[in-house]
Amino acid sequence: MVQHQRPFEGIKVLSFELQVAGPYCTMMLADQGADVIKVERPDGGDTARGGAPIITNEAGDKQSGYFVRFNRNKRSITLDLKSEHGREIFKRLAVEADVLVENYRPGLLADMGLGYEELSQANPRLIYAAISGFGSLPEYAGTYSKRPAYDIVAQAMGGLMNTCGAAGGPPTWLGVALGDVVSGMNAAHAISVALFQRERTGQGCFLDISMYDSMAGLAERSLTAYSLTGHVMQRGVEPYMAPWGPFETADGWVALIVATERDWAKFCDAMGRPDLVGTEHTSSGPARAANMSGELGDAVRAWLRSKTSAQVTEELLARGLPVGPVQDAQEVFECEHLAARKLFIDVPDPVIGTARLVGPIVKTSDALPPRTEPAPRLGEHTDQILGELGFTSAQISELHDKGAV
Fold first, then answer.
1. What is the CATH number of the domain that holds 319?
2. In terms of domains, do 212 and 274 share one?
3. Do 67 and 171 have their domain in common?
């Protein structure tokens, strides 16, 4: 049975956001039907609008692929929050909003009289989500609370970069803005929980999401290992499980994991090496891990390099072992399985024409087709949104003349 309403239809989200973390959060809410009103500065808007890759059409119009990634299904209004009129419009929008999401520096909106304390007095049901580098609630203030942060800083400080990369090599950024994306996901989850709780209490709340916290949460394996053993895990050295990781094949790379002794026996059967089962050096994950730099590792790597990625995948899958090729973006983009999963969606764009993007991740049995409204042009919906607030055409023109919008 197909439902006729998305879960967040009727939920109004006011966003004062830039770059990735805030926009990713509100994109997730918009995908589920929320009406997201994106407040941007009149002089350029979200700085992501200038991010590469820049796509230019035949008419010379430009669009940022960086911006398109996270801003579908939203409406844009430009407000000069330095002006009294701009702040008053923001307050009126907040009075009607269910949720406010912001990821500017902590205290910026409060300094303008637009913080949670002020806005919640006029709208006690407001759920105010603030995403920052190191947190913003005073009762949880730490040494780094006032520091600025970008994704790479959060990944470094949170413990992820120290465990990623080759042994003896430099710490490695993970290749995706996890500090931003995961913080945005955490914020969307927290907002969903807060909306559920509000149905019980009738009250909104302040949500404090820290990028540093989010990255430490992702690094829980190494943090738990240190907590329980005092051992600091290092990049390129796996102490608890083997074989595990990416391995080179005759024509590329595969990723695999041998998680149990039963799986190790199956792996040895695939290699044609039953003699490696149950020996002193192979009887447990830690024992194998300790010997992967010697003859055991040499045998495993030699077998893998003697076969193509497809052959390795076929032989290990035939024995029920988890394995998969290391794929590049083109291979993922053209994957038949993901096509069957309908992961990618085609989103229209006034400049690009059509952008094929990663769509909603979660599949449900009663879902409507994904929303595919284009990322808004800067201030595209300003007049429409002001009209919904009750401003007349004459008043809207006056606001434009004053530079408030």
1. 3.30.1540.10
2. no
3. yes
Round to whole Å and give the CA distance between 231 and 69.
Answer: 39
200 with 259, same domain: the answer is no
Q: How many distinct structural domains can be found in the chain?
A: 2
Residue 313 and residue 249 in one domain: yes
Instruction: Give yes or no: residues 183 and 281 share one domain.
Output: no
* CA 218 centroid distance within chain: 12
d(CA 91, CA 113): 9
Instruction: Give every CB contact of residue 391 below 8 A, 6+ residues apart in sequence.
Output: 399
State CA 132 to chain mean position distance.
14
Q: Both 248 and 203 in a single domain? A: no
Instruction: Going residue by residue through the chain, which has 405 residues, state the pLDDT in tens, using 9 for 90 and above.
Output: 455 789 999 999 999 999 999 999 999 999 999 999 999 999 999 999 999 999 999 999 999 999 999 999 999 999 999 999 999 999 999 999 999 999 999 999 999 999 999 999 999 999 999 999 999 999 999 999 999 999 999 999 999 999 999 999 999 999 999 999 999 999 999 999 999 999 999 999 999 999 999 999 999 999 999 999 999 999 999 999 999 999 999 999 999 999 999 999 999 999 999 999 999 999 999 999 999 999 999 999 999 999 999 999 999 999 999 999 999 999 999 999 999 999 999 999 999 999 999 999 999 988 789 999 999 999 999 999 999 999 999 999 999 999 999
Residue 86 CB contacts under 8 Å (≥ 6 apart), including other chains: 79, 80, 404, 405
Give me the residue label for tokens 């076969």. 307
Q: Which of 294, 311, 330 is the last residue of a domain?
A: 330
Give the residue numbers marked as catalytic.
Answer: 180
